[in-house]
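cron nightly-structures :: item 1 of 1
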Amino acid sequence: MDWQRAIQEIRNAKKAHKAWVARAEALVEGLPVSKEQIPVLPTECEFGKWYYGEGQELQGIEAFQKLEAVHDELHRIYMEIFKLIFGEPDLSLLDRLLGREPEIKEEQRKKAEALLPRLRARSGAIMGLLSQLEVEVKLRAMRAQKR
């Protein structure tokens, strides 16, 4: 295994995850973010693509194994937010024909905002596991160099 490449991939996964969370927060705050920029499914975000793709090389490491459940929970929470914001838009036929975006009602926004602490907590857990994973990969890299 190319340990240096694995470390770089973990760092890239961290960056991709942070960007995804920032877009989800921006969406809830009412900033213009398209729903395509924040994939709902855990296998469609950049982190998920890495995790279920090249990241599988690390599946023997405990921190990596723990990531899946936490990542899935993060996406379940986001699915709730997504439904509140994009669920059933209140648009007239004319608005839809003109391509206008739905206005998010204040009640929907408040419910979405109430979910952000849970989303952030899951994100923090993911970042912690990724940091543990990076440390473990570095240790394995050092052991491999000694051989």
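cron nightly-structures :: done
Residues 106-146 form the longest helix (41 residues).
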